[in-house]
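sanity check this:
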Amino acid sequence: MNCHLLVPNLFWPESVGVEPYRELALPALETLLARGTRRKHAGISLERWLADAFRIAPQYDLPLAALALRGDGGEPGTGCWLQADPVHLKIHGDRPVLADASRFEITRQEADELLAALNAHFAQDGLAFVAPAPQRWYARAHSEPRIRTTPTGEVAGRSVEHFLPAGDDSARWHSIMNEAQMLLHQHPCNEAREARGELPINSVWFWGAGRLPEVARDAPYGTVWSDHPLAAGLAAATSVQCRALPESGERLTEVAGDAAQDRPQLIIADRLRRAACGDVQGWRAALVELEQRWFAPLLDALKRGAAVSVTLHALGPEYSLTSLSTRRDCFKFWRVARPLAAYAA
């Protein structure tokens, strides 16, 4: 089995320093990093990494919404789609900072009520909103917006002012976003949420505009193990099997079967993303869980010969790291493991 383990937000923002890494016990991860062949890259998000891996060509924007909708069980057809993610904007100082749906819960009823209001208001603008899942919203536009956008995951926890849509149609879409904010701010659903002490869903974040793109049929992976809709959509577009993420690397070796002998297996372990918006303790706890469930079992699989190689793709907002480890590398004891903070420097 040739495993590619994709871990978004493995590294904490550089400006914080090494404090988030202090006294983290991650022996398997540190061994993989020390004994493997490492390459450092510029920072990249999960969405852009997947687009690069599956060779998605930009239209005016990077057309990922239609693929994600397909992975979410929808049918994009020939329409033009955008992600219209439900978000909460909070003024921090004098800047609006975005919290995505990983920071709050949305019920099916709340999603339906809010989307009904958006559809009624924006019908005259040729926009139609749908939500295959309460926390994942999409919008169909009557014509392709000439805007360049930023995935929500890259903006979460940051001021939105430098990430607003750019391009020929940017002024129109800034206006649409402002109207959506005013509409949602006054909605009874959000008033009820605030009364319960929950974050109101007071805006939508548009990104990934375009029509369903052509995807190269020679996919780089044999199976994609993920619950992420974009990964599922890319797998469907390339006739690659997408299977639910197992609970652990040990379980993966049990269920992969003969499929593991074909092309590499792509495993997307994105548990760290939820905590990456400032929850240091949550991030540390999730990292220890990844050590137990994924890094240690995959290192063990290498030593036993159940895996031919493990390639770790550690993504971060400012830099990323790729580390390729083979069974032979496991026995290079002279490559001394260092704390994760050493690789973040």
